[in-house]
Amino acid sequence: MPTEAEFTKEVPRPSPESVNTGLSSCRNSTLLAKFGAPRARVTSEIRPVTNLALKARLKRGRWFGQAITGLDAAVSSLGRIEAKIKANHPSLVPHMGHAGMLACRLVRGSRTSISNHAWGTAIDLTFDGEVDDRGDVNCQSWLLLVYPYFYEEGWFWGTEFPTEDSMHFEMSDESVRSS
């Protein structure tokens, strides 16, 4: 069984050709067209969702024992992903967690782009409460183990972003369009 040190070993992120094949990062235009703005004014501060139609689609759930709130389709999908991780990688289970799902705010550093977290369609994963370092072009090895289950469910992995964000998974544009 791999040790915790082996799970958190930093490895080069996968090449763009080897991840997210056939999936694209969900665009604000898709989320806005499908659900509307999550609130009238979105800023860099996390604020509550005020869009009543979107609020009606928000669902509470659990991710490896921790509470999550997100879009109903995302929370249901995460439940299926969790079951696959538990069945195929039980040694990861006590270490899995998240650093947030629903967070109605702008993308870090942006003045205009709304974070996909604002609609509850993204989650940031943790291992023993720690996040993978953003922007270092590496990822922790355990993320390579869980990625296939997210991919099967139509989630886009943030390792491919221009500023690598390997802890970030979001429903792909294709998945949101069909939800």
Polypeptide structure, described:
By secondary structure, the chain is of the alpha+beta class. 30% of the residues lie in helices and 20% in strands. It is built from 6 helices and 8 strands. It has a 4-stranded antiparallel sheet. A two-stranded antiparallel ribbon has the order 1-6. A two-stranded antiparallel sheet has the order 2-3.
Features:
30% helix; 8 strands; four-stranded antiparallel beta sheet; 6 helices; alpha+beta; globular; two-stranded antiparallel ribbon; 179 residues
Described by the principal axes of the CA atoms, the overall outline is globular
Relative strand content: 15-25%
Helix and strand run: HEHHEEHEEEHEEH
Mean pLDDT metric = 95
How many separate helices? Answer: 6
In the sheet with the most strands, the strands line up as 4-5-8-7
Termini separation comes to 37 Å
CA radius of gyration is 16 Å
Low-confidence segments, given as residue ranges, are none
Q: Please give the number of β-strands.
A: 8
Structural class: alpha+beta
Largest sheet features:
4 strands, antiparallel
Query: Roughly what percent helix?
Result: 25-40%
